[in-house]
Write a structure and sequence with these properties.
Largest sheet: 5 strands, antiparallel
Helix content: 25-40%
Low-confidence stretches: none
Strand order of the largest sheet: 1-2-3-4-5
Radius of gyration: 17 Å
Mean pLDDT: 96
Length: about 210
């Protein structure tokens, strides 16, 4: 898989997370929080939906391919109504319900691996906090002592998945290479141990100013 092939699949999975999972979950259960799961990500409450690679798996065991179907039709097949959470945020995937889902299996596998790395690293960083996959920016994160930590699956600033540390108050120094704090691509850091070390260094650097 090439890194340049990721954006299309990431956008499609972001659309599934927002329109097919978080939106219906918010309307039914009052929360937009999603979670990392084996093979991808999942809702935390009803409706019971999980992305596993390039498929959507329902609580009844129905397996729906994430290709050659609109987001609206995918949602209908899963027993929900497509649509983002309403009135909670302005940004999002930008995906419309009449667009066609187009997920590449290899890219989906890499994204799932990055989520698993992020889940492990964040739980090592602070075992008492539960990482949340937020549908707005499609990132897995926690917040502690006015610092955000997490793994983003990519955006206009960095096209590939990356680990980040985002203090609520700006910091200065060579470690802080982004306007929001610090970020390093997962492809450069490697596995969960390296991501944990980066997050821990970010925490140390942020607190050194305090």
């Amino acid at each position: 898989m090439r890194i340049e092939d990721l954006p299309r699949t990431r956008r499609a999975l972001h659309g599934v997370a927002e329109l097919v999972m978080a939106g219906p979950q918010y309307r039914l259960s009052g929360t937009i929080r999603l979670r990392a799961a084996s093979g991808g990500f999942a809702t935390i409450t009803a409706p019971d939906l999980r992305v596993d690679g390039d498929t959507l798996v329902t609580g009844t065991g129905l397996v729906l391919p994430l290709r050659d179907v609109t987001f609206a039709a995918l949602a209908e097949a899963a027993g929900v109504r497509a649509g983002a959470p309403e009135g909670l945020y302005r940004d999002g995937s930008g995906v419309q319900s009449d667009e066609v889902v187009d997920v590449d299996p290899a890219a989906a596998e890499y994204i799932a691996d990055c989520l698993a790395i992020g889940e492990t690293a964040l739980r090592h960083l602070d075992p008492e906090l539960t990482p949340v996959l937020w549908p707005e920016h499609f990132d897995l994160g926690i917040s502690s002592d006015e610092i955000n930590y997490g793994v983003s699956l990519g955006n206009s600033e960095i096209e590939e998945p990356y680990a980040y540390v985002g203090p609520w108050q700006s910091r200065e120094g060579s470690f802080w290479n982004m306007t929001f704090g610090a970020a390093r691509p997962i492809s450069e850091l490697g596995g969960a141990d390296a991501v944990t070390a980066f997050l821990e260094e970010g925490r140390r650097q942020a607190h050194d100013r305090d």
